[in-house]
Write a structure and sequence with these properties.
- It is a single chain.
- With about 475 residues, this protein is mostly helical.
- The protein has 2 domains: about 250 residues, no CATH class; about 220 residues, Tetratricopeptide repeat domain (Serine Threonine Protein Phosphatase 5, Tetratricopeptide repeat, Alpha Horseshoe).
- About 65% of the residues lie in helices and about 5% in strands.
- The chain contains 24 helices and 3 strands.
- It has a 3-stranded mixed β-sheet with strand order 1-3-2, with helices on both faces.
- α9 runs parallel beside α12 and α20 runs antiparallel to α21.
- It is flat, with a radius of gyration of 24 Å.
Length: about 475
């Protein structure tokens, strides 16, 4: 069973919203009227700029899961909640980090991260959605911005300096931690009180959003209670309980607020169960044996109509370990029963490609696109299938459009760079990889890639002009990024 050796540095993003010092129990269950100020210094546009910078550094420093299917699922779930949230002032972007620790955090620009370990502890989609709803509330209420403005009033540094310290925390942990500690250690009691209010507000607003989106509002206190009970007597708390403390008053408060909403009995979400099995098979850090043991334990207690999602997970494990006969035995009946199921199509395509059945994979994906022409998952999978089949021009044709539509998706740029490399187009390969480097805040390397590409392009050509223009853009972005520090 895999665990990271130490807590990741980005936990300090959410630690600014939540103190690891236990909050004092309170009988006051009234939600404080905190409003959504924090506009005197940090504008929404500025928050989005900071969020983009943090996201680039996280891509470079943390194991962000780039699985198109899981990304699509988390984005769909998150935006269903956002559509029912109040006070939304920024686009939202949801993503997964491969980490067995239970945690989630939100930061500037509507960025919300979930640890893959949450899938192993949330027993329903409503429970997972309750975590997302809580983090969405942190963003809509601008808790991080308000926290920094409050800290700035009690320190000699400006909000901009505090934001720069936070960016340094992600990029260079030692410098960032020192800077943050220097500015926030002055008034610990005030920090605890502010944190308690933030968490209660996020719980209350999150429960309301959860109910409006059609989920079970009681899932939030149920998840809280199970976590609190599970770790009541342990000395090593999971990251989520360090950054989102659960004193008894908060658990009780969330339970009381949930009583204002009817209990909603929802059928098990097939997409959630499939995503959960996919995480266990590929993104929990488990070995083959551990993954199969987990899935088999769940199979023993699963209802007959819920076993297919677990068999799907087992099929993935077999595919990834080249046990294709066992994979076919489990997957073939699944895709025969649900030929349009995206999870099954994706797994069957993986199986085709691993067995070098390239044309079968391509035909499968082309046929699937007829029923779902706008699917980004199918598009990126088809581009990959063409690449694996040696049909590089077809892959490039899809990827050029895909990267235009999804410029922040590292999958598209990585596949495009690989496709150009296979064709021997070194300049285009360098440019494509340069975009991948820029998404990871590796500005100097990105600019160098484009400079090499421009030198290789024909003098006076459209390609050279395009590369030169992109160099100017990247230099400007690098300057803005460095100014944040």
């Amino acid at each position: 069973m895999f665990r990271f050796a130490k807590a990741p540095t980005y936990l300090l993003l959410s630690a600014l919203l939540s103190s690891s010092i236990p909050a004092i129990a309170s009988d006051d269950n009234r939600l404080p009227e905190m409003g959504t100020t924090a506009s005197s210094t940090l504008t929404i546009d500025k928050e989005r700029e900071y969020g983009d910078a943090y996201m680039r550094v996280i891509r470079a420093s943390q194991p962000v899961i780039s699985d198109p299917l899981l990304s699509d699922y988390v984005q769909s779930l998150g935006h269903k909640l956002v559509a029912n949230a109040e006070g939304v002032r920024t686009p939202f972007y949801f993503f997964l980090i491969q980490n067995y620790e239970i945690n989630a955090f939100a930061f500037f620009g509507g960025h919300v991260a979930l640890h893959s370990g949450l899938f192993l502890h949330a027993q329903s989609e409503s429970e997972l959605a309750s975590v997302l709803a809580h983090e969405i509330a942190h963003v809509t209420q601008r808790h991080l911005a308000r926290k920094m403005e409050a800290d700035a009033k009690n320190s000699p540094l400006t909000v901009a300096a505090l934001v720069g310290s936070l960016l340094l925390t992600v990029a260079a942990p030692e410098a960032g931690i020192a800077a943050i500690h220097a500015t926030t250690a002055a008034n610990i009691q005030g920090q605890i009180n502010f944190t308690r209010s933030n968490e209660k507000e996020a719980d209350s607003i999150g429960i309301k959003t959860l109910a409006k989106a059609g989920f079970d509002a009681h899932a939030m206190p149920r998840f809280f209670e199970r976590l609190a009970e599970q770790y009541r007597y342990t000395s090593k708390l999971p990251a989520m309980l360090l950054t989102h403390p659960l004193p008894e008053s908060r658990v009780t408060d969330s339970r009381m607020r949930a009583r204002n909403y009817p209990t909603v009995v929802l059928p098990p979400s097939e997409r959630y169960l499939l995503a959960r099995s996919r995480v266990v098979a590929r993104n929990a850090g488990f070995s083959e044996t551990s993954s199969l043991n987990w899935l088999n334990r769940e199979l023993k207690k699963a209802a007959p109509n819920r076993r297919k999602e677990l068999n799907y997970g087992k099929a993935l494990v077999y595919i990834d370990n080249a046990k294709y006969k066992q994979a076919h035995q489990l997957l073939d009946p699944l895709i025969a029963g649900e030929p349009d199921n995206m999870f099954y199509i994706d797994a069957a395509t993986d199986l085709d490609l691993n067995q070098k059945q390239y044309q079968r994979a391509i035909s499968r994906l082309v046929n699937a696109q007829k029923n779902n022409p706008d699917s980004s998952v199918l598009r990126i999978n088809l581009a990959n299938a063409y690449l694996e089949a040696g049909k590089y021009q077809q892959s490039i044709q899809i990827l050029n459009r895909y990267t235009y539509d999804h410029p922040d998706d590292t999958n598209g740029w990585a596949l495009l760079a690989k496709s150009y490399a296979k064709l021997g187009n070194r300049a285009a390969e360098l440019a494509s990889f340069g975009e991948l480097l820029a998404l990871r805040a590796q500005w100097d390397k990105a600019i160098n890639n484009y400079m090499q590409a421009a030198q290789m392009a024909k003098l006076g050509s459209m390609e050279q002009a395009r590369y030169d223009a992109r160099i100017d853009q990247l230099r400007f972005q690098r300057q803005k990024f460095k100014a944040l520090q």
